[in-house]
Amino acid sequence: MTNYLKEETTHNKNYTNTAGKINLFTDYNLFLLQMCSFLFFETHHILKNFSMTNILSFHYVKLQNYLYLYSTHHSLVSLLSRDIFPSKTLLRL
User: 74 vs 5, 58, 68, 83, CA distance in Å?
Assistant: First the structure.
């Protein structure tokens, strides 16, 4: 039991946020999960309809917009997760 708890705490320690920073690993996993569900439901929707060319072009544009939004979000997250004040500057204050 103690070994299990020890492994569980070390496992959770790798994925938790430190000092209020955004965890990019879980953010990336969330994106992959959303992307897989998006592709699954969209392909299911495409297969149910008949006019394939119009639907494929529409969903391709939708997918491009989704990827653009994610790249914008990812760049904002990487900007926010950087240290504004380096540790040397804080030591001087």
Answer: 33, 24, 10, 16
pLDDT at 37: 74
| Domain presence at residue 91 | no
Cα–Cα distance measured from residue 22 to residue 75, given in angstroms and rounded to the nearest whole number:
12
How far is the CA of 35 from the CAs of 47, 57, 74, in angstroms?
Answer: 18, 18, 14
3 domain residue, yes or no: no
Structural domain count, the chain: 1
Cα torsion 48, 50, 52, 58: sign: negative
Tell me which residue has tokens 């992959």: 32
Give 37-56 pLDDT, tens digit per residue.
777 776 666 666 555 556 56
Segments forming the whole domain that contains residue 31: 23-81
User: What's the rounded Cα separation, in Å, for the pair 55 and 63?
Assistant: 12
User: 10 Å Cβ neighbour count for 51?
Assistant: 9
